[in-house]
Automatic annotation (TrEMBL):
Domain Ketopantoate reductase N-terminal: 3-153
Pathway(s) served: Cofactor biosynthesis; (R)-pantothenate biosynthesis; (R)-pantoate from 3-methyl-2-oxobutanoate: step 2/2
Record bears the keyword DNA-binding: no
Taxonomic classification: Bacteria, Bacillati, Bacillota, Bacilli, Lactobacillales
One Pfam family here: ApbA_C
Keyword Membrane: no
Gene Ontology CC: one annotated term: cytoplasm
Catalytic activity: (R)-pantoate + NADP(+) = 2-dehydropantoate + NADPH + H(+)
BP term (GO), one: pantothenate biosynthetic process
Top EC group: oxidoreductase
NCBIfam families in the record: apbA_panE, PRK06522.1-2
Highest taxon above the source species: Bacteria
Protein name: 2-dehydropantoate 2-reductase
Amino acid sequence: MNIVIAGAGAMGSRFGIMLKQAGENVILVDGWQQHIDEINQNGLKANFNGQDVTEFISAYNQNDLSDVDFSADLVILFTKAMQLDNMLQSLDNMLGKDTIVLCLLNGIGHEDVIKKYVDYDNILLGNTMWTAGMEGPGKVTLFGNGSVDLQNLGEGKEDVAQKVADVLTNADLNARVSSDILTSIYRKACVNGTMNGLCTILDSNMADFGDTSVAKPIVQKIVSEFLAVARAENVFLDEEAVIEQINGCFNRETIGLHHPSMYQDLIINNRLTEIDYINGAIVRKGKEYGVPTPYCEFLTQLIHSKEEIVEAK
C-alpha cells in the first residue's frame, strides 16, 4: 500500500518506521527541513524499546510536493491541528478519488477540514495510545506498547476501516475498528487535556506530576469538564475508568518518564501548541452547550501566556 505519513514528528516517525518494516511503501511529509534533510541523508534513527534502529524512508517538505510522483492509497494525518488545512492543500496532487485519509490528530472536529479535500466516505477518525519522543532532527525514541482505534465516517464503509486496521495491525500497531470512535476520542482527549497542558506548564514529566499532592484533584476537575461536554454530545464515559487510565500515565515503569507532545513542542522545540484544539475546544463547546469549563479555560490561558513568554513560533 502507498502510504503518506503527513506530519513526521515523533508519532508520525513511529508509524512510518513500523509500516516500512512491515513492507509498506511509505513516504514522510513534514515542514521541518532540518529533520527532512537528516532523514534523507542518514535515515530515520530510533531508539526502539532499547534497540537502535535506522530506517531509510523518503522524506519531503510539504511545500515542495508539486513534482513528487506518488499516488496515495492511504494518508495518515499526524500534523498539528492548526496546520491541517495547509497540509491537505499541499498533498492535493497525491489525493485521488479512492484515497483513504485516517486522522489521528489530537483534539476534536478535524473531519470538518478533511472533507474539503476527500470524499466523506473515505475519511476515518481514530486515536492512538502509542507514545513517542523526538530527540532531534532525524532521531526519535519509541518505547512501550499501544493501540489504535478507528472508525469510518461513511455509512456502510466498515470494509474500508477494516482494510486500514489490517494494514496497521500487520505492522504491530494493534488497530481495531470501533463502532463508537467518539467515545475513544473523548477518552484520549481527557488524557491529553490533563497530561499535555499540566506537564508543560509545570515543566514536568508525567510521573513527577503524578507524585504531587494535588495531582488527583486537578485531574478530576479537568476530566469532569471534558465529560460534561461529552454528555452534551450524547457521548457517555465512565469517569472513574477515565481517571484510572490517566493514573496509569504516572507509572515510572511504563510511560511515566515520558514528556507529552505539548511539552516537546513548546518547552523543547519552541513551537506553538494545540491547546486550542484540546482544552480550548472544550471551552468553546462548553459555551455552546452552557457547560462551565473554568479549569480548561484557565489552563488554555496559561499555555497561551507561556507561548507568548517564550515567543513560540
